[in-house]
Automatic annotation (TrEMBL):
Keywords: Calcium, Hydrolase
SUPFAM superfamilies: (Trans)glycosidases
Naturally occurring in which organism (per UniProt): Flavobacterium aquariorum
Key word Transferase present: no
Protein name: Glycoside hydrolase family 97 protein
Pfam families, per database record: GH97_C, GH97_N, Glyco_hydro_97
Length: 705
């Protein structure tokens, strides 16, 4: 009945001229207009609160070696409308239930000359637009090869953009804030300074791309449900301010091999005049399929520690022997190998981390460098690189599992693939079974370096399929996956919630590789996190790495209070306390927040937000009445004014505030903080100062009567 009503109402919303049709969002704030141009080119435009967000923009795909591309000469042969409204519960998340409400318009187009049909499906939500290409089963479009997708996003002006350069292999960049017209010059300058970029277009940027217009509109461009397709970057025509899709090619330059029936991922445009609504948007998740895993009881959010930062910072090594020299000398039998003496993943050290996890309530211990292969990265001396089942002699898989189990801690597996992807696929069943046999439920995988195989890039279709294969196969084994250097997420964790983490951006490791911009963490939620959670690995308390790793001159550009806030501001069901036990033991009062903070939430309230400047969010820990607040701050010291109205009326709480000290600064005084307790209710207000590159964290615990 409800559906019928919606459909009736909806008929009013679609103007019935075939070549030009309008779609309205359920709240009426958005209008999308589809137009078939004179030469039969499909196009769309988008308005929000009577302002143009996207000017008329072309849609279509260029095909390779084909008599005709899917760009023009179309006629509209069918139009279908629909309305949808449901509420679903994620297995884990920022909120415990999510409303998925949209109006839909599906246009079937026919290309006369080739007698081919495509459908363009638009879904207009209360927070933005998603659309995709569909290729139904048909006689004249069975297999085809994509030369380039030609989806445009025509901007209305020279907006401010928060961007990282287009690259087929990495997203591990600091963000640049500039006008669109400045991208070319800045990218060219960066190109000469940064040799690591493997693909270059002077105006190419990655998604999720955050934009702000001069009159205060926030626009986010990204994609949802990237499956069996190449990852999309954007190229800007900076004369006309028109972005166009730029898919990741394989070695032959091919951007996609498609067999109908098939469809593209969703292209997404999230829009608001309030930056907080961009962060709160669930559109990307809503455009993904519902959960495909029947029994999800084994998928559990977790906080963990690990043998990790010591290798990243250069204090110890992943390899048991010296990395390359020993294999070059022919040492492949580790019972005879001379240990380097710096191997981090040794039994005694791992036990130290297990003890620390158990003593402080962490569920997991990650250990990297536990297995053979690090000494022979390119597999020169064996017929494989890593086999993911052979430990180094000083890492006792069974013994450590028993030890961890006796302390109520789970070991977390590490699979560095060295980018040797077919090798990983060949060993995957055995590797996952080995995990199950030894009590591991979660794996951090990694794809460092160039993809070693047939010239693939990290983000082309073959690789996207590989990452997906790894997640789906892991689900068969009831294994949770946290993939590093994989393609950036697009909301697939709705369908496969065992994908509990991804890196796919510049994480804490870069603080040890030269540092990151102090406002980086105020941008990640507006960009990278739009597609899903990040394993950022926060919690660094010792910012001067040379104190324990003399050759490392990097500085962690953050304050201790900022590091605490990240557990709340960078949403993830998987959170690491990345620093060493001895550093936490030095600051037990600050460490208390990391021990207390939740990793799964029933509500999230974005209290303040401005990309590049600040984010303040309050989250309610699932199954409790307790709240946690995090604030991260950019370059300038700032006072935020917090209203506790989100608390339940009539209840009293003790708030513990972990704040930057007066003199704190991300560079000059990162360890200045103070901890204080106050009583709060839902009428309380708070003014709180954050230092440059700083922030604050607050735990709000309901008083027991
Ligand atoms: C890069 C990952 O981001 C990092 O976390 C990991 O320790 C190394 N690769 C080694 O696999
Ligand atoms: Ca990385």
């Amino acid at each position: 009945m409800k559906h019928l009503l919606y459909t009736a109402l909806f008929c009013f919303l679609v103007l019935q001229s075939v070549n030009s049709q309008q779609l309205k969002s359920p709240n009426g704030k958005f209008i999308m207009e589809f137009t078939l141009q004179k030469d039969g080119t499909p196009s769309y435009s988008l308005n929000y609160k009577d302002k143009t967000v996207i000017k008329p923009s072309k849609l279509g795909l260029e095909l390779k070696d084909d008599k005709k591309s899917l760009l023009n000469d179309f006629t509209v042969i069918d139009t279908k409308t629909n309305s949808f409204d449901e509420t679903w519960k994620p297995v884990w998340g920022e909120v415990e239930s999510i409303r998925n409400q949209y109006n839909e318009l599906a246009i079937t187009l026919n290309q006369k000359e080739t007698d081919r049909q495509i459908i363009i499906r638009f879904r207009l939500f209360n927070d933005g637009l998603g659309f995709r290409y569909e290729f139904p089963t048909q006689k004249n479009l069975v297999y085809f090869v994509i030369k380039e997708e030609r989806t445009q996003f025509a901007m209305t002006g020279d907006h401010t953009a928060f961007w990282i350069p287009g690259d087929y292999d990495t997203q591990e960049y600091d963000y640049t804030t500039s006008k669109l017209s400045e991208i070319r010059g800045l990218a060219e300058k960066a190109k000469t300074e940064n040799l690591s970029q493997t693909s270059f277009s002077p105006t190419g940027v990655q998604t999720s791309l955050m934009l702000k217009t001069a009159d205060g509109l926030y626009i986010n461009l990204h994609e949802a449900a990237l499956i069996n397709y190449s990852c999309m970057h954007l190229n800007l025509d900076d004369k006309n301010m028109v972005f166009e899709s730029w898919l990741t090619p394989d070695e032959k330059g091919v951007k996609g091999y498609i067999q109908a029936p098939a469809h593209s991922p969703w292209r997404t445009i999230i829009v608001s005049d309030d930056a907080r609504e961009i962060l709160a948007s669930k559109m990307t998740l809503n455009l993904n399929d519902p959960c495909k895993i029947e029994d999800t009881s084994w998928i559990k959010p977790i906080k963990y520690v690990g043998v990790w930062w010591e290798m990243i910072s250069g204090k110890s090594s992943w390899s048991y022997t010296d990395e390359f020299p020993s294999v070059q000398l022919g040492v492949t039998d580790f019972s005879k190998a001379k240990p380097s003496g710096t191997h981090g993943a040794n039994n005694a050290n791992v036990k130290k981390y297990i003890d620390f996890a158990a003593a402080n309530g962490f569920g997991g211990v990650l250990v990297e460098g536990w297995n053979e292969g690090w000494e022979d990265w390119f597999g020169h001396y064996k017929d494989y690189v890593f086999d993911f089942v052979t430990p180094y002699p000083d890492f006792d898989v069974k013994g450590l599992h028993e030890y961890a189990k006796s302390k109520g801690v789970k070991m977390i597996m590490h699979h560095e693939t060295s980018g040797s992807v077919r090798n990983y696929e060949r060993h995957m069943d055995k590797a996952y079974q080995f995990m199950k046999d030894n009590g591991y439920d979660a794996v951090k995988s990694g794809y460092v370096g160039s993809i070693i195989s047939n010239g693939d890039n990290h983000y082309n279709q073959f690789m996207v399929n590989h990452y997906q294969y790894a997640v789906e196969k892991a689900a068969e084994y009831k294994i949770m996956v946290n993939a590093h250097e994989a393609v950036r997420p697009t909301g697939i964790c709705r369908t496969y919630p065992n994908l509990i983490g991804n890196e796919a951006a510049r994480g804490t490791e870069y603080q040890a590789f030269g540092g990151s911009k102090p406002n980086h963490v105020t941008l990640l939620p507006f960009t990278r996190l739009i597609g899903g959670p990040m394993d950022y690995t926060p919690g660094i308390f010792e910012m001067d790495l040379s104190k324990f790793s003399p050759n490392n001159k990097s500085h962690v550009n953050s304050t201790i209070a900022n590091q605490l806030a990240l557990y709340v501001t960078l949403y993830s069901p998987l959170q690491m306390a990345a620093d060493f036990p001895e550093h936490y033991n030095k600051f037990p009062d600050a460490f208390q927040f990391i021990k207390d903070v939740a990793v799964d939430w029933s509500e999230s309230n974005y209290l303040e937000a401005e990309p590049g400047q600040y984010i303040t969010v309050a989250r309610k820990a699932k199954g409790t009445n307790n709240w946690f607040i995090g604030n991260v701050n950019g370059y300038e010291p700032r006072t935020s004014n917090i209203n506790f109205a989100f608390l339940e009326k009539g209840k009293k709480y003790t708030a513990t505030i972990y704040a930057d000290g007066k003199e704190a600064n991300y560079k000059t005084n990162p360890q200045a903080y103070n901890v204080r307790k106050i009583q709060v209710t839902n009428t309380s207000k708070l003014s709180q100062l954050s230092a440059a590159g700083g922030g604050y964290a607050i735990s709000i615990i309901e008083n027991k009567k």
